[in-house]
């Protein structure tokens, strides 16, 4: 059965039921450590057979639960992670450890696996909407039901292999196997490492330093952060036990220092919370809480004849996560937004997305005018942007000498911004319009009707924008109208508290004129020659909207269903790689390579195209395109390079990667960077042909290593070709791209 499971994975088509079930069962093992690492899962599966009876029972229970989940029609993507079957695996390991094989044992195993599946689904459905994972609570529920029930199953016998197992091993392998077992059990390790390794092995109900060592190496292989948290938790538990006198008789029990501490620390310090220095302190704080639960619950449950097993870990983890969900300010100890089943991947994706993908956090607001205007009063500016109205911007048009008017400036028409169009900063609904207030003569103000003529738009629940001091009767909109970004809202005037024509702009959380302001960034704009993304213009800055390029917008549209054949220009006989755009169940868009199975997720906003994640074969040409077009602003901006940052998952040097993984929660010394520049346009205003050049680099310890340079050619609104130069290749790879009808 074991060899069949392992052999199925590489040889079966990706979406067959057999492969799906094999993957679900395999990942059941690694999911115990919050992992989807196949190699780690295979190692754990093998280690479970250090106790052959328990290993076979665990594998059987996992197969039963995965098959049941598939037959009952539960979510295939969740099934594939092992989430439906890992509790059944634990049930099987426990039953195989404590009971003798037989017909009654087989029936109890079948019922236990099915009950574990049902409890997993039910608890997941109840806890999931509350933001909490069920963890191994279903396993505990099954064991607590089966333990007293087993006393009435007279055909079910307790396992006595702990007494006679050496005789059984002698019958299997003779004297050589017996000598090997004696050698392995005869290791003379120092007390602390020996206890740590036995504590790890207790996850699989074993007491073996060898199994614990292999588990520790597998955990290190899977995640340096998870491994370091396990060591921190073990040392913290040992220190707490010494301080409270738990070991005053000199005996250090590996169960007391066991999996509860390690698993709770990994969960709250690196899996469900983004790893950081604060998360390590949070994990350390979980140690004394787990210690109290281990001692208290162990005593209470012993009176009922029930084992505590992983209950302290579950309660500590869920308590520590639930209180974080109730916070108002989540800057410290941010929870993992998308679970990638690796503390490193969670950390690198979170920090990288926070820096570059703010477009997912905000409604994209544009500047509400045409051309280049100057910020004459910014946030917290004097005299009027104070107190509850501090987060607002005033704009005016200035000439080359910095003046806002021509001639003597005695008339409103002398001011450059007067009567200029004021535009909707984003799609929205008109909720308030005031347009009857007269303009003030130059130098006078109307404090009685402070905001003057105003339009308020709603862009999302709890998000409104307001433009004020408009010219009277210039607004063509009325409450209830739907407007698109860039549509006319009115004309710049001098109404309200306005001594000279200017435009007031603010964002607010309520629809009322006079509402307090809300700090909110503008999505994309130019400040001089520099591109600003999701920032607030400062007082004195001259700003304008990013001029979008029609060729770039069309080339990077990539709607679902779009297909592209990519061929090697120097090897026409080589089969093409077809890329196709799909949308997943979460409405996320991605490019899929039919030949290699590689997937590159991307997002397309009004002004930018950005890749967000890559999964699969990194020898695929799609991976080269992912690195080549990592972020493209849809505006032709010849001149300086536009920088960005890759996630640290781009790092491939094992030594450098492991060193950075250990240090990542505290310091970053490796910086994968991206740079793009535009050139080669045949027409700067309406180009039919355009070339982009990008560079992916790795910077560390003052050194820079080029990973890839690429020239991207766009022709008639489509991707036409790539010229990719890799450092280990003498000549570039030339790819030709052809859209498929």
UniProtKB/TrEMBL annotation:
Localization: Cell membrane
Pfam families hit by this protein: Peptidase_M23 (PF01551), UT (PF03253)
UniProt feature coiled coil, ranges: none
Keyword 4Fe-4S (UniProt): no
GO CC entries: plasma membrane
Organism: Hymenobacter gummosus
Bilayer topology annotation: Multi-pass membrane protein
Family: Belongs to the urea transporter family.
Major location (coarse): membrane
Domain M23ase beta-sheet core positions: 418-508
GO molecular function: urea transmembrane transporter activity
Protein name: M23ase beta-sheet core domain-containing protein
Transmembrane regions: 54-72, 78-96, 103-126, 227-248, 254-274, 281-302, 308-326
Acyltransferase recorded as keyword: no
Keywords: Cell membrane, Membrane, Transmembrane, Transmembrane helix
């Amino acid at each position: 059965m074991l060899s069949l499971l392992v052999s199925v994975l590489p040889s079966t088509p990706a979406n067959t039921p057999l492969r799906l079930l094999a993957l679900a069962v395999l990942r059941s093992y690694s999911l115990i450590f919050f992992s989807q690492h196949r190699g780690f899962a295979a190692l754990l599966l093998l280690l479970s057979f250090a106790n052959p009876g328990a290993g076979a029972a665990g594998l059987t229970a996992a197969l039963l639960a995965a098959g049941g989940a598939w037959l009952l029609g539960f979510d295939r993507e969740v099934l594939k992670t092992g989430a439906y079957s890992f509790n059944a695996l634990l049930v099987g390991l426990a039953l195989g450890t404590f009971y003798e094989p037989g017909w009654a044992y087989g029936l109890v195993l079948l019922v236990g696996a099915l009950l574990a599946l049902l409890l997993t689904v039910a608890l997941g459905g109840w806890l999931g909407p509350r933001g909490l994972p069920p963890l191994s609570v279903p396993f505990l529920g099954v064991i607590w039901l089966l333990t007293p029930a087993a006393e009435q199953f007279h055909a079910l016998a307790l396992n006595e292999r702990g007494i006679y197992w050496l005789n059984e091993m002698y019958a299997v392998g003779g004297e050589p196997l017996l000598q090997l077992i004696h050698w392995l059990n005869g290791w003379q390790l120092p007390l602390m490492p020996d206890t740590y390794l036995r504590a790890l092995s207790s996850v699989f109900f074993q007491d073996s330093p060898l199994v614990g060592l292999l588990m520790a190496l597998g955990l290190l292989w899977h995640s340096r952060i998870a491994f370091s948290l396990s060591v921190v938790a073990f040392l913290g538990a040992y220190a707490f036990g010494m301080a409270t006198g738990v070991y005053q008789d000199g005996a250090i029990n590996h169960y007391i220092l066991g999996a509860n501490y390690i698993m709770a620390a990994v969960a709250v310090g690196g899996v469900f919370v983004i790893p950081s220095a604060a998360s390590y302190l949070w994990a350390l704080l979980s140690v004394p809480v787990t210690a109290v639960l281990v001692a208290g619950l162990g005593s209470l449950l012993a009176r009922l004849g029930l084992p505590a097993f992983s209950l302290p870990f579950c309660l500590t983890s869920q308590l520590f996560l639930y209180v974080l969900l109730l916070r108002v300010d989540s800057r410290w100890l941010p929870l993992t937004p998308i679970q990638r089943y690796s503390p490193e991947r969670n950390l690198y994706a979170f920090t990288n997305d926070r820096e570059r993908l703010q477009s997912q956090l905000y409604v994209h607001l544009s500047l509400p005018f045409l051309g280049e205007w100057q910020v004459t009063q910014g946030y917290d500016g004097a005299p009027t942007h104070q107190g509850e109205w501090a987060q607002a911007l005033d704009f005016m048009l200035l000439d080359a000498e910095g003046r806002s008017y021509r001639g003597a400036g005695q008339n409103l028409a002398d001011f450059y911004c007067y009567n200029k169009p004021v535009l909707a900063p984003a799609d929205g609904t008109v909720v308030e319009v005031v347009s009857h207030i007269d303009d003030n003569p130059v130098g006078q103000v109307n404090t009685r009707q402070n905001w003057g003529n105003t339009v308020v738009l709603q862009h999302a629940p709890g998000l409104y924008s307001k433009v004020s001091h408009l010219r009277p009767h210039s607004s063509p909109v009325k409450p209830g109208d739907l407007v698109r970004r860039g549509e006319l809202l009115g004309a710049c005037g001098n109404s309200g508290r306005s001594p000279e024509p200017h435009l007031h702009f603010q964002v607010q959380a309520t629809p009322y004129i006079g509402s307090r302001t809300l700090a909110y960034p503008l999505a994309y704009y130019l400040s001089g020659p520099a591109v600003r993304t999701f920032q607030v213009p400062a007082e004195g800055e001259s700003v304008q909207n990013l001029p979008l390029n029609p060729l770039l917008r069309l080339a990077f549209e990539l709607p679902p269903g779009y297909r592209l054949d990519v061929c090697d220009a120097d090897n026409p006989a080589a089969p093409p790689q077809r890329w196709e755009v799909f949308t997943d169940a979460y409405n996320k868009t991605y490019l899929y390579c039919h030949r290699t199975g590689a997937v590159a997720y991307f997002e397309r906003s009004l002004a930018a195209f950005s890749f967000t994640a890559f999964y699969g074969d990194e020898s695929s040409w799609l991976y080269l395109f992912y690195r080549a077009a990592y972020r493209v602003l849809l505006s032709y901006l010849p001149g300086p390079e536009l920088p960005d940052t890759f996630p640290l998952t781009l790092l491939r040097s094992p030594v450098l990667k492991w060193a950075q993984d250990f240090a990542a929660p505290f310091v970053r010394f490796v910086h994968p960077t991206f740079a793009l520049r535009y050139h080669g346009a045949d027409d700067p205003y309406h180009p039919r042909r355009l070339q982009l050049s990008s560079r992916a680099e790795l910077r560390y310890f003052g050194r820079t290593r080029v990973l890839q340079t690429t020239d991207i050619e766009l022709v008639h609104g489509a991707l036409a070709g790539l010229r990719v130069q890799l450092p280990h290749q003498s000549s570039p790879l030339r790819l030709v791209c052809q859209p498929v009808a």
